[in-house]
Each structure stands twice: as structure tokens, then as C-alpha cells.
Prior knowledge:
Helices cover about 35% and strands about 15% of the residues. The chain is built from 8 helices and 9 strands.
Amino acid sequence: MELPPGLAVQGEQKVCRLLKSLYGLKQASRQWYAKLSQALLSYGFVQGNSDCSLFIKKSESSFMALLVYVDDVLLASDSILEIERLKTFLDAKFTIKDLGPLKYFLGLEVARSKTSIFLCQRNYILDILEDTGLTRSKPIAFPMESTLKLSANDTNFYEDPSGYRRLIGRLFYLTLTKPDLAYSVKVLSQFLAKPAVSHHQAGIRVLRYLKAILGQGCVDTRRSVTGFAIFLGNSLISWKSKKQVTVSRSSTEVEYQALATATCEIQWLFNALQDLDIKHSQSALLYTDSKSTMPITTNPVQHERTKHI
């Protein structure tokens, strides 16, 4: 720690007393990331282009990928020796705690076999059910009825809006491993400002659906929903259900915007695969069920029906 200019007195060796924990400072996370990334880069890692928290180290005999979340680190490599060397280096720099093979990380449970890796959030779901008192509730088969009409104009407000917001936030985190929740959670998140009793009841139904799986539009807006699912081989690796930013004037425009969003996600995934040194020479196949959209994607000429997109 350096003393401010003018504070040092000749002949005295004083230091500053830290009155506030470093973790409480706004710049703490930024300073920590700068120090950690500097150490990793000096060790031979290269920062990924697709994700600034991803670091890659390649050599003729090994490959190593390191993912950082604040002060938690995930490490993957095809060389146990390289992993041990890196752990020794990090321990000398920062004093680390080795938690062993990945089993539980930020609410994600990881199980692996010789042929695959399985991700779930079972304990996270159980915690939510216990906190909401729904551990003994009756499970149901689907999260939201297709005929359900929720409105922001409902004046029968829920008595605990902060509790509703907290519930929706926890459900959002569940969409990491459960794409079947994406649409329901997206709909419920539109009423965070003034949640009504009906909105909370719809959220409770989602929780009852979650208990069953442990081991479509909104009247308040004219904006449509973008939804896509991306597969790498037979594995579903990315999905989204999100309201579009603008109001579309036709179903063709809706489908075209959804294709554009999916294309951006595919391009990012290509960059991520490149960072991980996974070669994917084939072109991605993008499917749509809109025949009116396909001519627009193949003909870049703009005319009066598409120039506003």
C-alpha cells in the first residue's frame, strides 16, 4: 500500500490502517480479477475471445481450460500433471483450497460417467420448495396452462412483492439446466414491478411442476417471443425464450428476428469452440417453420416489406 503524496514524513515509517474490508470496496472485484488474470497470463494462459473469464493454455502434449467466477475456479485438462502444476502455482500465489473433482458448483450438480456428463439442480430445487413450504405439495405435469391469461392491470396485488421477485430470480437461475421453464419464467418476470395474487399463484404452479421433475403470448404487450434451441450433435447446449425488443408488423418479421437472434448465438458458440480448440468445420444448420421467412434470408435485397426490419 502506498501513502498519498505529501503524507510521508522523513525519518518516519508509518503505514495506513485499513478501516474497511477489501471485499466491501466497489473496486475489489475488479482489482482481484486484474491480479488473478495477470498471474494466469504470466503462467502461459491466453484469454478467450468469446468469454473474458475463460483462459486457455495449449501445448503439444496437453490442453487446459480454466473458468473463473469471482474467486471460484473450474479447471479442465487432459493432463493430470499439468493440473497439479497449476494448483501448486496458484497456491503459492493466492493460497487456494482444492475441492477435488467437480461435483457441485454454484447450485449446479455434476455427475459423470465414462461416456457423458449430467448437469442438474436437484438440491437447489429442494431448497426452494422448502423455503416456500411446498415440500409436501402435490406435483403437476406442466408448469403453465396454455389458456392462462395474466395481466399487469390486475389490481389484486400480492402482499409480499419482494418475495415474488426473489422467487422469480431463483426460477431464472433454474433455466440454466431446465429449458422447459424458459417460457413460464419469462412470462412471470413481466410482473415484477406490481405482482398480483394471480401472478404468485402461477409461480406456485411452476414450483409444483418442479417437484414432479426432480430425479405461448401475453395480453399486456404486442411484442412476440423469440425462442430457439441449439444442439451440438445430440446434446442440447443453448436455449432461449425472450420477448422481442420491438413490435413486429407480421409473423414473417417475428420469425426473421428470431432467426437473427439464433444466428448471433450460433456465432458466439463457434467462437467459444474455437477458444476451446474444438474444430467445427461444418456449417451450422438453422431450421425454421416459416416459409415466408426463408426467401428473405436467401435474398438480401431490401424492398418495402422488409426494409424496416
